[in-house]
């Protein structure tokens, strides 16, 4: 089921740390060549690339802000310049700027929409042409359980993440006849730097609401990505996989 992944190429946005790093490494384990995108933390990106190489695959680090259409386009172009094709796009880059509605600044709303929602559109749009030409592509968008159930203090984030689910369905319908599948993963609360900012109290509150009674690991999400990129998921498109310990069911 996974052997066809060997020699394929992938762009993982926000692949330098957290869930994105885990996705990049999991794909590399199956022989995928991985471009690791990051926005500022070059050292983390280079470390991820070094680990990809240790796993016996090829990797490159690509700096670029996914919210900027020109920079997003350059990411896809770099992958094609390096390896001649792009088979897999994982739209993972994301940020939070949490606050209650009354205190949420316009720029906090705009920044989250620009990175988390427009960033997905920018990369998806840039990857569409080469994928259509080769009549093959796997696009996997990382949403969130918060885009499905909402959360106080995360209006901007939940709007972006819900938007990704809608975008996934429209893109899936538009691109299916060209051999391109578009799916989405909605992680629950995953143990990364993003959630390590939470206080112990908030983390234990979260855990109480998780039927499997623990935070998720980045690897839990990475394995779902490998599945959606594999031959085994050839008959799935427009779907959202909920990898959240049962938070949403
Ligand atoms: P981290 O904060 O640990 O990592 C974020 C990654 O995104 C980094 O690689 C960062 O690069 C990159 N990034 C940030 N902004 C941009 C940008 N404008 N352009 C390109 N890259 C950018 O996040 P997580 O690993 O926790 O989250 C990954 C994804 O999963 C996000 O979309 C998040 O919303 C989603 N998610 C996370 C959950 C969680 O509990 N952690 C739950 C549900 C969904 P750099 O290092 O250079 O800053």
UniProtKB/TrEMBL annotation:
Pathway: Lipid metabolism; fatty acid biosynthesis. It catalyses: a (3R)-hydroxyacyl-[ACP] + NADP(+) = a 3-oxoacyl-[ACP] + NADPH + H(+). Its EC number is 1.1.1.100. SUPFAM superfamilies: NAD(P)-binding Rossmann-fold domains. PROSITE patterns: ADH_SHORT. InterPro entries: 3oxo_ACP_reduc (IPR011284), KR_dom (IPR057326), NAD(P)-bd_dom_sf (IPR036291), Sc_DH/Rdtase_CS (IPR020904), SDR (IPR050259), SDR_fam (IPR002347). Keywords: Fatty acid biosynthesis, Fatty acid metabolism, Lipid biosynthesis, Lipid metabolism, NADP, Oxidoreductase. Residues 8-188 form the Ketoreductase domain. Homotetramer. Belongs to the short-chain dehydrogenases/reductases (SDR) family. Catalyzes the NADPH-dependent reduction of beta-ketoacyl-ACP substrates to beta-hydroxyacyl-ACP products, the first reductive step in the elongation cycle of fatty acid biosynthesis. This is 3-oxoacyl-[acyl-carrier-protein] reductase. It comes from Paenibacillus helianthi.
């Amino acid at each position: 089921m996974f052997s066809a992944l060997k020699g394929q190429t992938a762009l993982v946005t926000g692949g330098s740390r957290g869930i994105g790093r885990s996705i990049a490494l999991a794909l590399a384990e199956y022989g995928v060549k991985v471009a690791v995108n990051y926005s500022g933390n070059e050292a983390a990106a280079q470390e991820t690339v070094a680990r990809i190489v240790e796993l016996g695959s090829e990797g490159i680090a690509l700096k670029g802000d996914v919210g900027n259409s020109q920079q997003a386009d350059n990411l896809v172009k770099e992958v094609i310049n390096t390896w001649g094709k792009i088979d897999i796009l994982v739209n993972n880059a994301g940020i939070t700027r949490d606050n209650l509605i009354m205190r949420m600044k316009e720029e906090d709303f705009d920044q989250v929409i620009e990175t988390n929602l427009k960033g997905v559109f920018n990369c998806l749009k840039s990857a569409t042409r080469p994928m259509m030409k080769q009549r093959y592509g796997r696009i996997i968008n990382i949403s969130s359980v918060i885009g499905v159930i909402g959360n106080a203090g995360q209006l901007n984030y939940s709007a972006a993440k819900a938007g990704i689910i809608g975008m996934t369905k429209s893109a899936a319908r538009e691109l299916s006849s060209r051999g391109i599948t578009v799916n989405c993963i909605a992680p629950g609360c995953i143990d990364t730097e993003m959630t390590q900012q939470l206080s112990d109290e908030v983390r234990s509150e979260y855990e109480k609401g998780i039927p499997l009674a623990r935070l998720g690991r980045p690897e839990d999400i990475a394995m779902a990505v490998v599945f959606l990129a594999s031959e085994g998921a050839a008959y799935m498109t427009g779907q959202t996989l909920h990898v959240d310990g049962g938070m949403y069911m």
